[in-house]
Amino acid sequence: MTEFVWQRTPLLTIGFFIAKEVRNLIKNITNFIPVLAAIFVTDSTWLPYAIGGGYLVFIIVSAILNHHFFMYALTDDAVHLRTGVFSKKSLTLKYERIQQAELDQTWYFRPFALTILRVDSAGSAGKEVEIPGLSVELAHNLRQQMLAEAKHASVSATAAEDDVGAAPAPQPDLVRSYGIGELVRAGIYDNKLFVLLAVLIYPVSQTDILEERLVPWLEANVTFIEQSLWLNIGLAAAALSLLFVLAIAVTVISFYNLTLTIDNQRYQTRQGLLSIRTVSFRYHKLQRVRIRQNLRARLLGRFSMRVSQLQPSASAQQQQSAAFNLPVLTQSGMSELCRWLRLPNANQLNWQKISPVALLQPSFWIALTAPITATISYLNVENLGLALTLGASVWLALQLYAVARWQRYGFTQAEGWLGVRSGVFGSKQNWYPMYKAQQIDVYQSPWLRLLGYADVIVYTAAGAEVIKYQPAALATQLQHEWTATVAQNRKRWM
Amino acid sequence: MAINWIPVEPNYKSYLQLVVLIDMAILAIIAASLYLFLPNNGWLPAPLWFGVPWAAITVFFGLFWSLRRYQFTAYARTEEAMFLRRGALWRLTRAVPLNRIQHVEVRQGFLERLFGLAHLTLYTAGSGGADLSIPGLALANAEAMKAELITTIANEQTDESDHD
Question: What is the ipTM of this complex?
Answer without folding.
Answer: 0.86
